[in-house]
Amino acid sequence: MTQRILIGKLAVLLASLNEEELGFLHPNLTEIRFCKGRVGSMNLQKVIAAVETAAKRERLIEDQHYRETHALYHAILEAIEGVTRGQSGIGEMKRTVGLSFAVVRGKPYLEEAEGEWLAVAFYGTIGAPVKGLEHEAVGLGINHI
């Protein structure tokens, strides 16, 4: 491979595209390992669990390898900080999220020894738990495996 794969940029793009929009890109994504999903909650643990479950279901991480689960967890927390503007509480702060997410696994560096990395991106809304009072938000987290 002669070109870096920008896993963060790709994750943000995938998280923000709907299924119809993704259809235009999908044929070009055959060599990229990723998963997508949606989660809405006032509970941060449910958001974390949704991403972790999707990544495990799509075999982006191996459950028996602690370092992979650990890397995913830190990437999720970093991405959540972007969505919540550094205040990672949701329900306890009387706010809710409706998010699409993407997890991308890849080798973003040309040097093979740099290994694999995970990028987690969220795109959606955050706000008071009243329909119409939310606003858009995006978050990105990247961690090495």
UniProtKB/TrEMBL annotation:
User: What's the superkingdom here?
Assistant: Bacteria
Q: Does GTP-binding appear among the keywords?
A: no
Q: Which residues form a coiled coil?
A: none
Q: Which UniProt keywords apply?
A: Activator, Histidine metabolism, RNA-binding, Transcription, Transcription regulation
Q: Name one GO molecular function term.
A: RNA binding
User: Pfam families of this UniProt entry?
Assistant: HutP
What Gene Ontology biological process does one annotation of this record name? L-histidine metabolic process
Q: Describe its partners and assembly state.
A: Homohexamer.
Describe the function of this protein: Antiterminator that binds to cis-acting regulatory sequences on the mRNA in the presence of histidine, thereby suppressing transcription termination and activating the hut operon for histidine utilization.
Give the family per the record. Belongs to the HutP family.
**Protein's UniProt name:** Hut operon positive regulatory protein
